[in-house]
Amino acid sequence: MIRYSLRMTNSSGATDRAAAFSYGDDFIPQPVLRPREQIERQVREAILSSTIRGGERLPSEAELSRQFGVSRTTVREALRTLTAQNLIRKVPGAGGGSFVQSVTANSLHTSLLSSMNNLLALGTISHAEVSQVRLQLEVPAASLAARHRTDEQLEEMAKIIEQQSRISVDDPQVPELDARFHGVVAEASGNQVLAAFVHALHGATAPVHFLKLSADMSPQAVRQHMAIHKAIKNQDPELAAEKVAEHLEYLNQYVDEPDIPLRTGS
Questions:
Q1: Which of 264, 109, 104, 107 is nearest to 199 (CA)?
Q2: What is the CATH number for 124?
Q3: Per-block mean pLDDT, blocks of 10 residues, the chain (266 long)
């Protein structure tokens, strides 16, 4: 059973555990947190410090309400905020509840993806902006991949390219395979943060969906993937970066951006 010790602050700013302060020049009063915010902070700190580990189920709302000494509505609001921050996930059903998300590079990707989707839903991000960020991230990622790639990652890239070469431009697998290829290149960089950003960009926008795909364009894109793979395999950082830049610039010629680039894929 997870136990929490909540030090609720009253309206006068005093805590249940009285403390004497000598008001010197260095004392700066801090804003008083509402009960919901105090619950959020304590649970967040417990998750980030691994006091509560990834995969663990939190007590029920009723039990948390009892432990914290607040209403179930207050607990529910706190859990809703923590869910939006991707620190916990809600699972419906008899065996469900609130489960702690693992704080890993993958959870960073999930958090970034959620934020990207929200911005896209507002229509404040354009494909041109996404393309600029992709260029800034994927070019150095390819360079790093040429230095740090593993045999397994090279094999996975080759398998993806082989699949791409066998399907037509209108095959529903095209976006998924494109995202997987660029994702593996980013992962091969050895930088988990960089890989998380690249995955999020692809997951939120699926760049292939913005392209006016044609029968001649698809084979050319596959050939460019082959060139990227070859440069990474030969451990040539400069050539790998050059080939990715050429590939992204080539794709930009076929951009057909919708009015609101909204996609809610996972």
A1: 109
A2: 1.20.120.530
A3: 46 44 63 87 87 89 93 94 85 87 64 65 70 87 97 96 87 83 94 87 59 65 95 97 92 58 35
